[in-house]
């Protein structure tokens, strides 16, 4: 079988189009412009790439983008004071604190100081608990984007065997919750999983989110399975010339595409959907904050 390529770039453009429509309505009917505040502490290179394209797209869909760039050695109290200010600012509907934070800052403390209803990353313990109990919450952007692509491709996911490789709070665990919510039989695999190849071979849906370049080979993939590659790894590409690099996922694309029914590429798969879902979460948060109907199809 040769897999259908799930075009995350195109899908994300569609999602941003829906967000833009909703923003237009909020402005015209309610005189409200959704605002997203992004806080970047220090200069992590991965975060900088992300902040750039995110800021551009926030403005493109008609929302206000508020950026706070703080010094790498900003004291924790200053960061918490800024978050407090954003929490009570009525023009700010979404707050995202770029991770990872410099080591002197307590990531859990910082995340949990964001007002849960403005936590567009969905990392606050309240949102984690709400998601885990099937209540309305802010859903982490990357898993939400993966879910949207899976639903679009399959219609119903009910009864499917899903294997999530990776148990992070940012992707693996919330992804598993979402798949369970859609009635998949879910396995979370990780570095200590016994017989990982055999576990993955059972899966109708494989979500790879470990951050290890091309670690899933094609012969782990059940014929016809759907493969969602969350990894974005930059590796050396001497074949492209001295000092050149390229982006690869957590799955070995060619060999997995030869067996899968559908697969997401890297780049152009999950990454663009993550940003689109951040914008979707911001417009959702803004609608909720104003007691207005939520955008349809943009929430879990
Ligand atoms: N609080 C927080 N939330 C995040 O969601 C978050 C974060 N911190 N810190 C940094 C990482 C990184 N991240 C990316 C999102 C999209 C692409 C993306 O769209 N990548 C393109 C390729 C970009 C390229 O060419 O380098 C793609 O996959 O097609 C990349 C990286 C979100 N992050």
What does this structure look like?
With 300 residues, this protein is an alpha/beta fold. The protein has 2 domains: 30-121, Rossmann fold, CATH 3.40.50.10860; 141-272, Rossmann fold, CATH 3.40.50. Helix content is 40%, strand content 16%. The protein is built from 10 helices and 11 strands. It has a 6-stranded parallel β-sheet. Helix 7 links the parallel strand 5 and strand 6 (185-189). Helix 1 packs parallel to helix 10, helix 6 (141-154) packs parallel to helix 7 (172-181) and helix 6 (141-154) packs across helix 10. The model has no long low-confidence stretch (mean pLDDT 97). 5,10-Methenyltetrahydrofolate (GUE) binds next to helix 2, strand 4 and helix 10. Pathway: One-carbon metabolism; tetrahydrofolate interconversion. Residues 140-288 form the Tetrahydrofolate dehydrogenase/cyclohydrolase NAD(P)-binding domain.
The CATH class of the largest domain: Alpha Beta
- How far the N terminus sits from the C terminus, by CA atoms, comes to 31 Å
Question: What does the radius of gyration come to?
Answer: 19 Å
Mean pLDDT: 97
- Annotation, overall tally of beta strands: 11
Order of helices and strands: EHEHEHEHHHEHEHEEEEHEH
Bound molecules: 5,10-Methenyltetrahydrofolate
Question: In what range is the share of β-strand residues?
Answer: 15-25%
Based on the structure, what is the oligomeric state of the protein chains?
Answer: single chain
Q: What is the third-level CATH name, the topology of the largest domain?
A: Rossmann fold
**Arrangement of strands in the largest sheet:** 1-11-8-7-5-6
Integer count of domains: 2
Net shape? globular
């Amino acid at each position: 079988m040769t897999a259908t390529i799930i075009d995350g770039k195109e899908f994300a453009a569609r999602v941003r189009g829906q967000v833009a429509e909703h923003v237009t309505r909020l402005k015209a009917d309610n005189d409200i412009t959704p605002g997203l505040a992004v806080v970047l502490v220090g200069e992590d290179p991965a975060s900088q790439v992300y902040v750039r394209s995110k800021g551009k797209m926030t403005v493109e869909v008609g929302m206000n983008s508020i950026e706070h760039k703080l010094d790498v050695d900003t004291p924790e109290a200053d960061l918490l004071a800024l978050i407090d200010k954003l929490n009570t600012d009525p023009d700010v509907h979404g707050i995202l604190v770029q991770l990872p934070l410099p080591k002197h800052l307590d990531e859990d403390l910082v995340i949990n100081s964001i007002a849960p209803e403005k936590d567009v990353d969905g990392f606050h313990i309240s949102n984690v608990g709400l998601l885990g109990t099937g209540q309305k919450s802010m859903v982490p952007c990357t898993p939400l984007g993966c879910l949207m692509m899976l639903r679009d491709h399959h219609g119903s996911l009910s009864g499917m065997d899903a294997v999530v490789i990776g148990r992070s709070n940012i992707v693996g665990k919330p992804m598993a919750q979402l798949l369970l919510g859609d009635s998949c039989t879910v396995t979370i695999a990780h570095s200590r999983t016994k017989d990982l190849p055999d576990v993955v071979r059972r899966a109708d849906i494989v979500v790879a989110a470990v951050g290890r370049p091309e670690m899933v080979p094609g012969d782990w993939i059940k014929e016809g399975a759907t493969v969602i590659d969350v990894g974005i790894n930059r590796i050396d590409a001497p074949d492209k010339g001295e000092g050149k690099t390229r982006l690869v996922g957590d799955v070995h694309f060619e060999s997995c595409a030869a067996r899968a029914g559908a697969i997401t590429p890297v780049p152009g798969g999950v990454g663009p959907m993550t940003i689109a879902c951040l914008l979707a979460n911001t417009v959702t948060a803004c609608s909720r904050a104003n007691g207005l109907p939520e955008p349809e199809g943009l929430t879990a």
